[in-house]
Amino acid sequence: MTTIRQRRVGKGTEAAEDQPSEETNVKPDGKIPSDPTGGKLWNILSITVGGIVAISLGLLTSVYVATLHENDLWFSNIKEVEREISFRTECGLYYSYYKQMIQAASIQQGLHGLVYDNKTESVRTINILERMNVYQEVFLSILYRILPIQQYLEPVYFYIYTLFGLQAVYVIALYVTSWLLSGTWLSGLLAACWYITNRVDTTRVEFTIPLRENWALPFFAVQIAAITYLLRTHLQPVQERLTLMVVFIATFLFSLTWQFNQFMMLIQALALFILDCLDMLPTAKVTWLYIIQISGLLLVCVLQFFNSMILGSLLISFNVSVLIARTIQKNLKKGGLLNRLGKLILHVLLVLCLTLLINKSIKKILSLESDEHIFKFLKAKFGFGATRDFDANLYLCEEAFGLLPLNTFSRLSSTLLFYVYGFVLFLLTIAAVIVAFRNLSGSNQVQLKEKAEAYTVTLKPDAAYSLVHTVLFGCLALSTMRMKYLWTSHMCVFASFGLCSAEVWKLILKCLHLYTSQRTQVIKYSIPIITLLYISFKFWPGIMDELSELREFYDPDTVELMNWIKSNTPNTAVFAGSMQLLAGVKLCTGRTLTNHPHYEDKNLRERTKQIYQIYAKRSPGDVYGILRSFGTDYVILEDSICYERRHSRGCRLRDLLDVANGHIMDGLGENEPDLKPSLYPRFCEEIKKNLPSYTMYFTRVFQNKTFHVYKLAKHK
């Protein structure tokens, strides 16, 4: 297994002018310049300084994560095979296509090898560009080939530095979003500092570099920043068109780089739908955002050779349903409170029914089953019945797909982030409820309006969107730990915006009967500065210690295995084993695989379940027949899976296989009443005894402390 050990010493733009006048042209000391020219100069100076700070923080973040990666692995000193092994599980699979494109005789030949690939899944030719989101690897490999940098920069460094560079884009986008929401770049500075000091919970780029989310999330952050600007009032037509173009480009790039894009954008579409129904966003702008989501996803569908999983996505069905339902119900936003509520309930039901109808129809026409494992997983996760489905249980038993651990909140609280976030969330939720009620009631009485505004703030569209966005993605993160990075990064934005918002402090001071304009401005700047000083003094020493801690990559067993495969097996050999290990086999040796970690294909999921019978209680003849049906020449058995202790009983891979096969699980504990003892012992254990019934099919050709490799006989 891969470990990290201690390194041995001897081894050699400020808010736009369309903001309310109360918030523009305000100096940090709370004084409003009397000279209009002086106010413009102050704005230019503020935007310039804020922009420089944003770029500087983005670049510093890139250098920071790159340094951590180097210090953890001693990446510059280890061998090429060790570098490739460090790209674990699916990361190695994605990087292998970049390596394949680099090593191809020409760009055309490299592309042909991806479109007609017969090494990723044995006895089968697949289109990698259709099945996987690897256009970023294709683009980067072409860029590396045409730029005059081959003599100065190795391909692997060009790859990882690009990903670390995207972190700069990510941080700058978060900074700008917070700046746009609050009207001061001090908010962006605080958001970026929180992102860095909460790095454990905001990103994992330094140890999972090629992961799809590390490509996609920076573009998602840019899209959110553009939407935040789009939702401002009094935009000029040119500004609005340019912003829509940025939203489209960011949406397209986000969709192109991550296979889970449709689910993230579905949540975003739900946020827009909720706010539109409550009359808190301009309907015309929301319509454009729906259309951009659909068009961006359809463009990706074309580039992925009409990938059926995209066509059958819930996002497209939902957005089309909303647009149809709105056409049917033209007077949705007219009438009194009860009338509006009745129409709203009908509207929601109509959208829901249309979504299900359109989605079921598309899936039936296309015979689409690629994403059924996700819905089985969700059904089991939220308690809609237990399941013996192998794929669903495989997800359920992984910690990354479990509930968000409670210690996450203690870490976020240590930087004050979670405390501030909860405080701002509470205040703005109250404000949103009041505004929503006022919108639905349709009251135009001036006296009632003035009374309401004396105690509450009018929630701006961009702030309303940010509120619902963080609530929905917070629910996603709480239910599925792997998705926390979508929430925690926006948490930094939302908390910093609230702490630097004049409207939030105005609300608090009015409730305490302490409100004055000068006092609001003083608090708006002083509290964030105090928070920044606290974060700096508390966490700067820890960051310096972290940067000075030197470790080294250490995984001799896997290195020995990869070197043996390259030296002792033919280039055409087919290998079977665990998904995670085989991704590394493809990257390090170029051998053909039977299965791999990219799980969004029904045939591959069924194939993986069959290959995993090597860890089940099956006869040697059965296992041999299964492996040979996929053209297998060698099978790799891992002790860490065969004798697994990482998971509890019921969640070990061998337990999942036993239950799926109808067999009683090993060890003490309860079994479901209809499970029966197997007629055969566990294959991965029994094969090591070299019994004649096994040696007639399998010959051990390699072993070390972790891995056992067996060559399959050519006869049955």
TrEMBL record:
It comes from the Eukaryota. It is found in: Membrane. It is a multi-pass membrane protein. One of its GO terms (molecular function) is mannosyltransferase activity. One of its GO terms (cellular component) is nuclear inner membrane. The chain crosses the membrane at residues 41-66, 179-197, 217-235, 242-258, 264-281, 312-329, 341-358, 416-441, 462-479, 485-505, 525-543. Residues 1-10 have a biased composition (Basic residues). Keywords: Glycosyltransferase, Membrane, Transferase, Transmembrane, Transmembrane helix. Residues 1-34 are annotated as: Disordered. Pfam families: Dpy19 (PF10034). Belongs to the dpy-19 family. PANTHER family: C-MANNOSYLTRANSFERASE DPY19L3-RELATED, DPY-19-LIKE 1, LIKE (H. SAPIENS). This is D19L3 mannosyltransferase.
